[in-house]
Specification:
Layout: H1 2-13, E1 23-27, H2 29-40, E2 46-50, H3 56-59, H4 66-72, H5 80-85, H6 88-91, E3 100-105, H7 113-125, E4 130-135, H8 154-167, H9 173-181, E5 183-188, E6 195-202, E7 207-208, E8 212-213, H10 215-233, E9 238-249, E10 256-267, E11 271-280, E12 285-297
Parallel strand pairs: 1-2, 2-3, 3-4
Antiparallel strand pairs: 5-6, 6-10, 7-8, 9-12, 10-11, 11-12
Length: 300
């Protein structure tokens, strides 16, 4: 969050932003950050927070991130202090002075509406000017408004996806996934060299703000390159099931060719530790990634 406020300070100093008309807004993770910002700084005259969460405890078991929560925060009954620390905006809602417009989908199974409603109720109880808009249609592909029930519900779907990943064949795995990621050329799978090199072609449809590639594609390219080198190194007997992936962004990726390279840092009997980079055609470093993955046998 300090980097966000530093950017605002710089924009005001340069005369780009009017300090008396500042507004902050975000959707999904951007809404989480928005809530943090307004709970920490009162300079903003308005805020828009869509499909975010601030009481992290409310998300446990109700959204799609239980595995991430337990891996990064630990279980709440053993690490309550960490969970409370990450619930800062909700537990310090009394510090918010900025009028807020909250938005969420009534059938959003990614970040259920209750996460938005709790933050809205908190500021309303404090007498702060705020509004809540509940959308009954899909708000984005990431926050679909349809919540399938029964065997097609989100938890079943997550389990099914994990099972399908374990069972996929080497031939069928890359076809639709790599096509979705914009695969251009597999220069090297890493069988002999120990380093995979994959060229991905970013289209305007993958970009925001004109010509900046959405960060999910950047992560996906490096993750896919790490999968290629892992499968090649194991003679295609194992597929990596990501347990954790960390990404550092250095420059914006742009439409056109982007080059992902990956290699194995360390390999155990059941776990592999991987590194990857993403560069543009000029060789400039755009992002780096590290991943811990479980080696899952490929069923043919």
């Amino acid at each position: 969050m300090p980097d966000v406020l530093a950017a605002v300070d710089d924009a005001v100093k340069r005369g780009i932003a009017d300090p008396n008309r500042l507004c902050v807004e975000g959707w999904s993770y951007g809404a989480i950050l928005t809530n943090y910002v307004i709970a920490s700084d009162t300079r903003f005259k308005c805020a828009i927070s869509g499909a975010g969460t601030s009481n992290i405890l409310a998300g446990y078991g109700t959204d799609e991130y239980v595995r991430d929560y337990e891996a990064e925060l630990g279980v709440p009954w053993k690490h309550a202090d960490v969970w409370l620390k990450n619930s800062f905006p909700f537990l310090h809602a009394d510090r918010i002075k900025t009028p807020v417009l909250f938005m969420g989908g009534d059938k959003d199974f990614n970040v259920p509406l209750l996460n938005v409603e709790q933050m809205y109720q908190a500021v309303k109880s404090l007498g702060l000017e705020s509004q809540l808009i509940v959308l009954s249609r899909p708000v984005s592909r990431h926050h679909a408004a349809e919540r399938p029930e029964g065997p097609h519900g989100p938890r079943h779907r997550v389990d099914q996806q994990a099972s399908e990943r374990q069972q996929m064949s080497v031939e069928s795995a890359p076809a639709t996934l790599d096509q979705s990621l914009g695969l251009d050329t597999v220069v090297d799978r890493g069988k002999e060299s120990g380093r995979s090199m994959i060229h991905y072609r970013a289209t305007p449809a993958m970009c925001h703000s004109g010509n900046i590639v959405q960060g999910g594609f950047v992560t996906g390219w490096m993750d896919a390159a790490m999968a290629y080198v892992t499968m090649a190194a194991t003679d295609y007997e194992f597929s990596p099931l990501s347990l954790e992936i960390k990404v550092s962004f250095f420059q914006s990726a742009r439409a056109g060719i982007n080059i992902a390279e990956a290699w194995i840092e360390k390999r155990g009997r059941k776990t592999v530790f991987l590194e990857a980079t993403l560069k543009n055609e000029a060789g400039e470093l755009l992002a780096k990634s590290s991943s811990t993955a479980k080696l899952v046998p490929v069923k043919r």
